[in-house]
Amino acid sequence: MNILVVEDDDHVREMLIELLQDEGYQPAEATDGLAALEVLREAEAPPALILLDLMMPRMNGWELRAALTADPHLADIPIILLSARTDIQQHRRALDVAEHLPKPIDFARLLDLVAHYCQRP
């Protein structure tokens, strides 16, 4: 796993996983923040990047970000926030995310960012 996709919308999550696999990445997936924490804590090594939806059931992106920040082994993983919310820019600093991509997702831009954070040419 070099990327973790945390997205509750099955269609969006599956599309992201397929896109990343087609580009040679090894993504893992989670349907919400609680599932993401489980995947991260069971992994041998943390991923290079997390793609994170904000609005999810059980544990949303805000809550997951807080849990990651509190864990020294997970706090430094870069996060690309994927959200349709129009007020994200004003919350970006509080969320402490590396990047924000609005939905609908610009896949070319996403792949550029993924390559950057996964250190691929």
What key attributes describe this structure?
single chain; 121 residues; five-stranded parallel β-sheet; alpha/beta; 5 helices; Rossmann fold
Fold and architecture overview:
By secondary structure, the chain is of the alpha/beta class. It has a single domain (3-117), classed as Rossmann fold. It has 5 helices and 5 strands. It has helices at 10-22, 33-42, 61-70, 88-95, 107-117; strands at residues 3-6, 27-30, 49-53, 79-83, 99-102. It has a 5-stranded parallel β-sheet, with helices on both faces. β4 (79-83), α4 and β5 form a beta-alpha-beta unit. The longest helix is centred in the first third of the chain and has 13 residues, at 10-22. The chain starts with a strand and ends with a helix. The mean pLDDT is 91.
Task: Write the topology of this structure.
Blueprint: E1 3-6, H1 10-22, E2 27-30, H2 33-42, E3 49-53, H3 61-70, E4 79-83, H4 88-95, E5 99-102, H5 107-117
Parallel strand pairs: 1-2, 1-3, 3-4, 4-5
Helix pairs in contact: 2-3
